[in-house]
Structures are given as C-alpha cells and as structure tokens.
Task: structure prediction
Amino acid sequence: MAAVQWRSRGRNYEAELHRCRSEAVPVEFGDYHPLKPIMVTDTKTRRGARKGSTSSSSSSSSSAAPDPLSSMLDGTDPLSMFAAASATETPAMSHSASLGDMGRKRREKEAEEAVGIDFEPWAAKRGEILARFTTTEKLSINLFSGSDRGKAPSPGSSAVSEKVRTRLEELDDLEEGSQRELLNLSQQDYANRIEELNQSLKEAWASDQKVKALKIVIQCSKLLSDTSVIQFYPSKFVLITDILDTFGRLVYDRIWTMCSDPRPLPDLFTVDEVNDTAKETCLNWFFKIASIRELLPRLYVEAAILKCNRFLNKTGIQETLPRLTAMIRGIGDPLVAAYTRAYLCRVGMEVAPNLKDSLNRNFFDLLGSFRQISGESVQNQLVLQRVEVPEYLTLYSPAINWILQCIAYRAPEPLLVEMTGRCKKLGNNALLLNSVMRAFRPEFVAARAMDFIGMIKDCDEAGFPKHLLFGSLGRSLACADPPESERLTILNEAWKVITKVRSPRDYVNCAEIWVEFTCRHFTKREVNTVLTDIIKHMTPDRAFEDAYPQLQSVIRKILTYFNDFSVLFSMERFLPFLDMFQKDSVRVEVCRSIMEVFIKHQLESTKDPVILNAMLHICKTMHDSVNALTLEDEKRSLSLLIIGFIRMVCFGRDFEQQLSFCVEARATFCNLEPVLVQLIHTVNQLAMETRRVMRGSHSRKTAAFVRACAAYSFITIPSLSSIFSRLSLYLQSGQVALANLCLSQADAFLKAAVSILPEVPRSISVEGKLRSSESFLLDFINNFLSTLLVVPDHPEHGVLYLVRGLLNMVQDYTWEDNSDAKVRVYASALPLLAAMSQETYLYSIPKVDSNETLYGGDPKFLSEINKLCETLIGQILDQLKALSRDESTRRQGALAFSLFGVLLAHGDLRNNKLSQLAVNLWNLSHKHGYCDTRISVRTLEYIKHQSLQHDMAHMSDTLQRLALQSRT
Result:
C-alpha cells in the first residue's frame, strides 16, 4: 500500500441536510386504527378432557383487522392455557409440611384477629424495659440439675402405670433439692443463665422429656417471688416470662398437632372438632399444673397455657380468667402481684381481647393493693435495699402501663373519665395518673388537658416527680391538639414546672417533649423563648455534653415545623443553640440534618443574607470535619449537601455578587473536590447567562466580567486532583470563553488541556475497581477535536498549532500494549481536517471568526491540511502492516474498515490513488471474514445511494470494485 495524495471531498452541508430530512407523507385514515379493540379469544378447559387439552368456549371480535401478534397464536392464548392446565392439577404436598405451614398461618391469623396493628405489642416494650431497669448488685439463681429419670422411657417399657408413677416421682423430685444455687452473678451472667434455661426447655421438649420441661418452667416462675434486688425486678420479669411464653406455645402446638390427624383443624375450630386424645392430653397438663404446691408458679404456668382451654370447652377461658384474677389477691408483695396481673392481662389480650371485665378487675385490684406501699413490710424492704420511694414507684410503671394499655385499647371516652375519677379518690395517685395519660388515646387526653394539669398540681411531689407527669401529658399533646383557647395556658403552666427542674438530665428530657407542642401551635417568638431557657439550663457545667440525643431531637422537631429558613434563622437563639453541640461527630450530624431539610423544602433560590450567612456557617462546619481519615463515602455525602446549597444561591441580575459568593465558597470549601467542580460549573453558567442577557454583544463591563469568570475557572481547575475532571473542565471552560469572545482565555484553556494529557494514567479506579483509562481518554480527545473546528489559529503560533500539539501529545503518550488507540485518534482527526478544508464550516460560534474566515480557502492552508492528513494516513497504514506481521487479523480488519469509512465519507475518491486505497482497505477488512456482513451490506447500499447524486457519479465505479467476502 503506497502513500497517496490526500484530497478532501467538497461538502455542501445544507444540501446534504435537505436530502436527509424525512418527507411528510399524507396518511389515509381508514377503518383500522392501532388503538381499536382487537379480537380476543377466551379459552377454557373442557370438563372431562385430558390434562392440557383446551377448546374455545367463547369469543368476541370487532370488525377491525386481526392483530398480527394474536394471529400467530392460532386463536389460543398461551397464558390462558397454562392457567387452565394448572387449575386441573393440585401439587402434592407432604402431610407434615402442610401441617407445619398451616400451623404457622393459623398463629399469624389468630394474632391479627386478636388485636389490630394500632396496638403496641409487648415485644416492642421488651428492649426498653431491659435497658432501663438495670443493676450493679450481685444476683443469684437456682438451676435445675436434672436426672436420668427425666429421660423419656424406652419403647420397651409400655406399662402405663409404671410410666405414670415414674413421671410423678420426677415431678416430686423438684421438691427434693434437685437444684443448685448460683451466687454473685452479674446482670449479664444472670441473663445468660436464663437463656440457658430457655434452651434447656426447648431441648427437653424436643427429646420428649415433658416433665423436665415442666420442672424448668416451675423453677423459673419461682424466681419471680424473689425481690432481693428490687431494681432489677422488671427486667427479671421480662426474661422469665419469655420462658413461660415458650412453654405455652410448645404445649398449645403439641395439642393442636394431635388434633390435625387425619386433617388439620380449621382456624376457628370448635370443641366438637377436637378428638378425645387431644382433650385428655390437655386435661392432663392442667392437672399437673394444679398439683403445683406454691401459688405463684401455679398462677404463672396456668396463665402460660391459658389458650389451651379452647380444646376443652367453649367458656374455659372466660371462666379461668376471673379465677386467676382472684387468686392473685393471695400474693403478699404488691410489686410481685402487679407484675403477675400484667402477665395475666398480656395473655388475656392474646387469647380473649374482648373480655374487658377481667382487665378492669385486675386494674381495680391493683388500685386496692396500693395501700400496701406505705405499709411497714414494704418500707422496711426499701430501707434494707436503700431504695427511695420515687425510685420504687417507677418499678411499677411497666406493669401499670401495660394493664392500662390493654384496658384503654379501643375503649370509649367515658372510661377515661372513670379512671381519672378513681385516681382522684386514691391518695398518692401520681404514678397511676402518669400511666393513664400514656395509655389512653391522645385525643381524649388533649381534650381534658386542663383537667389533667389540675390533677398534676394536686399530686405529691415526693412520691412521683411532676415533671414526669408533664412529660407524659406533653407526649399526648404532641399527637393531638387541645382546644385552641387553652393552648397558651397549657404551655405556661407546663413550663412553670419544667423550668424549676434542677437536674439538667430531667429538665432536658421534659423540655424536649414540650418543644414539639410549642412548635406545633406557636410562632418563632415562643420557640425562641424555649430555646433561651434550654440554653440557660444546659450551659452551666457543660451539662449539654450528656444530653446530645435530646438536643438533637429538639433540632429535628423545630425543623419539622419551621421549613421557612428565613424565619428559622431569624430566631436569635437558634445558632447559639447549635453552638452547644461541641462534639465533632454530633455537630456534623446536626448540620447534616439541617442541610437535608433545606434542600428538601427550599424550592426557590435565595439571596437572603441571613440564610446565606447561616448556611455558610453550617456548611463550613461540615467541611471542616473532613480530615485524612474521613471515608470517601462521607466526603461524597457532605459534598452533595453543600452542592445542593450552592445551587440554591442566586442573586438574580447581580452577577458580580454571585461571582463574589463563588470566590468566598471556593476559599471555604477547598478540601472537597466535588464542591470545587460545582463552583466552576456555576461560574461558567454565570458567564453564559451574562452572554444571554447581553444577547452576545458584550459591553466593556460585561466583557471584563466574563474574563473574570474565565480567570476564576483557570485558577481553580489546577487544584483538582482528578485528571479527567481537569481535562473536562478545561475543555468546557474553553468553550464558554470562546462563546463569550474571550479568545486568548479560550486558547489558554485548550493549551492547558493539551499540556496535561501526558499525566493521564493508563488505569483509573472506577467504583473501587481498576479499569483502563483508554476509553475515557478517547472520548475526551474526540470531544476536543470537535471543538477545534471553531477555534481560530493564533497569529503567532502557526497553522493548526492546537491540532498539531494534540497529535504530538498523542504520539508521545504511552499507550497500552496491543492497543490501536493512537491510530484511532489519527483516524478521528481526519474528519476534523476534512471539515477544516471546506469553504463553509459545519457549525460556528456567532461573532467568532474561525479559520474559514481567517484563511478564506488559502491554498497554503489547504496544503498544510493535506500534508497532515497524508502523514496520519501513513501512520495508520504502518500500523496495519505491523498488525499483519503480528497475525492480529481481527484488529487489522477492524482498523482497515474504520479507515475505509473515513475515506468514503471525507475523501475525494475521484483521485485514483485514493480510490484504489479505499478498495484495498475494503478487501483487507474482509480478507479474513471478521467484518460484520450486515454492516458491509448497508455500506454498499449507502455507496449505491450516494452514486445517484449528480456530483457523486464516480462512486459507481468504486462500488463495482467492492465485493463481499466471507470466511470459509
């Protein structure tokens, strides 16, 4: 392949565009329309037909033409066929698997029918109780040691009397000292031991050691009578009742399984559907429990299997609940009795939520037992354990709260009146009043807020702190609105009590609750007053350091109700309130939450100096938290928030003020690269907006301004670490400068981009993985080449100096081995050079004289273009020869076809040597059969179409010399 003399094909872009524009074809509207209903065939299975056979039973059609997709289905719909076939088949399931699945569904359905999703389950309170009621005292526990007699009898011992006698002996063994006491346990050790007992229960049950399982449950129930470490009692109750729940579930599932042979019980079964064997087993369990000597374990264990009464008679649960309620009166310790009632109410709500009488009776009995708190026995116990009365009363909270929650669930409003009346009659009623306000619907409490405030005033401060009562009232008022006329009075009365609380911890816990009520119903004036009071209480002795969660909650509540940031930042005490967040991680989290709300709710751009100064302060706080240890994800997240703020800043036509803001932001956020990138885009957009306002004709002032914008970008870009960000921004800024007639600035941007090309690494990290940078670099170079068409040559640097500089950099760049990227750049440069040789360019920038104007088709200029094209073609041909020596035929064929396409589109094939080169490249690309035949056919069709043009007749000669070849 000898070197050829290049000559670009003359182009008339307007004529080509006109030829490529599609012609408007008139549409004749007939009866058919694609949106009209098409024929629908309904296919059903014939009764008694073999499996899978179908027949059409009904059909409806319109007068429209048949749908071509439906016609391919021979009148049948495959989806209907599958549905019909599956309807005649029932998948086989194993009996045991179906029982297990139905048992699970049964329990889920029963749980849904019992109470609605608006009822807070016990599981939601469990974690809070365990975390709240802790102790550092040493605990003790009795562990069941077990014996060989606890194992299931062998299959050979079938005598029923022997089996019964053995099990009775095992049950009595519990009273004979078959247990060991562990002393000096920490709270965590105690919890671990209880969990071991729970696992032992499951293992004993799985190995058919039912008596051993019962012994474990009895032993655990006895632990609930121990109040030697009274502060831990609520947590002990939670841990041990988990074991009771497990036992009750195991017993119920076993009996239900016995009723499921030969077919499973329905969800709402009746006693008549239960077989005798299951009834006998169920009755046997109740007899075993009735033989337990001590009251407390007998109560707990029977309550655990209360649901099993459904297998014996219809009214079993209804009769058992009052009996167990009455039995609780025999428990002497009021705290133990209160939690026993709570457990009975919990089980009662699960199995019979409609039996409210039992719930009410438990509550009224609880009120009666409150007299014991002031009795000598309880007071001596508190003195012995060094527990104050207010702390002791809080131990009742989980039990009373649960009982009242069960009573108040979907209860009418008159019941609240009755409960408050009973509280008034009872002395030392603060604890009960607190539970009543938390249990009943917030709407009921809010409607009587002033009545509750009066009752709170009458409570004894020594028994239960009033700020806790106001905290409970505040929670209800945060969910429901009191009468509008009473709101200010309510706030004043509450804050009189709250502001007198001396303990910073107690104060902030209560104040945090009432902040929402204040934000919900009042203006920034009242909220500012509340913030002032919080700062006053939390600043001494740096008390705020121990209350960051509560202070963060205050911020969240304020942001929820004050989305207008001009109002928010006009509060004098808001920013001083933020200054209390001294811990870096917490301060950044608070600033992040403020920014997220700002971006979400600030729909319009702003130039309010109050907002800008405050948001700059918040963004600077986030920016200054970045250090060498900050994760990339964290940097990216903070950058996005700051970018969101920058995008919302707009000074309208005051472009200089906007540029000044960007200058200040660059100095403030210099450590976050994405923010700097956004600032550069913002300044470029500002320059283009100036051009739009001036309609492309700059005055002396605006011309100086856009040059200042270019200088801003030129100074900022080198500070970026990402090479591709710099390349992209240099090019974009150069395009913006060119559009604004800043030719020297545009020239500087483009030269800077060319100069850093050697710095591009061969591989870059993308989403944590190393990838070759060639594809990114080629994309940039192609974009750069398209820009060079409209860039005029510098008068002092010679013809095509930017193009030559780029190609020199490409030649010197270290490309990957076995890569054709360099010659592909050369092939991409040929269309640019061909376009530069035209009399009229394809596109131009208004008021910018491109080379078409500067040179005016000068022969010397065209000669320089042709020489450069010949050099590039020579480099490509040398690469093709090298590929033939390396036996890289696939790469050779692809490169040859690429160069053939360039010659076809941009070369003047009337030149015999250039035409012969094109034919040789075609043959080379098809020599080994790797070229896509479809593309080749379409290329030949294009050449044929082009040869029909009056000035392209020579293409027909070229077409006759091109032949399709395939690999054999």
